[in-house]
Amino acid sequence: MLFHVRMNVNLPAAMPAEEATRLKLDEKALAHRLQEEGKWRHLWRIAGQYANVSVFDVDSVDELHALLTSLPLLPYMQVEVMPLCRHPSSIRLDDR
Ligand SMILES: O=C(O)CC1=CCC(=O)O1
């Protein structure tokens, strides 16, 4: 199952720099692992914003929820999820 996910990141201005750095490094490590596993299929920066657009490829909504709620930056992100299904005009046979 594919899901489009937008994440807007809002770190508090008062957060100590070391804590912000640690959170970002932890987030990066998990994002790398999930991409290597094929779960986090796309990760794009939205130009000019501290936000990303991602596509997750998971087996269930419960799995997506588990992944998203494991993200270290989640307490500082607004997350929007859109379920995706195949477009009848798509020529990409590998998408589902
Ligand atoms: O910077 C972001 O958009 C939040 C984020 C997602 C994966 C990552 O490494 O950072």
From TrEMBL:
It catalyses: (S)-muconolactone = (4,5-dihydro-5-oxofuran-2-yl)-acetate. One of its GO terms (biological process) is beta-ketoadipate pathway. Gene3D superfamilies: Dimeric alpha+beta barrel (3.30.70.1060). Pathway: Aromatic compound metabolism; beta-ketoadipate pathway; 5-oxo-4,5-dihydro-2-furylacetate from catechol: step 3/3. Keywords: Aromatic hydrocarbons catabolism, Isomerase. SUPFAM superfamilies: Dimeric alpha+beta barrel. Belongs to the muconolactone Delta-isomerase family. This is Muconolactone Delta-isomerase. The lineage of its organism: Bacteria, Pseudomonadati, Pseudomonadota, Betaproteobacteria, Burkholderiales.
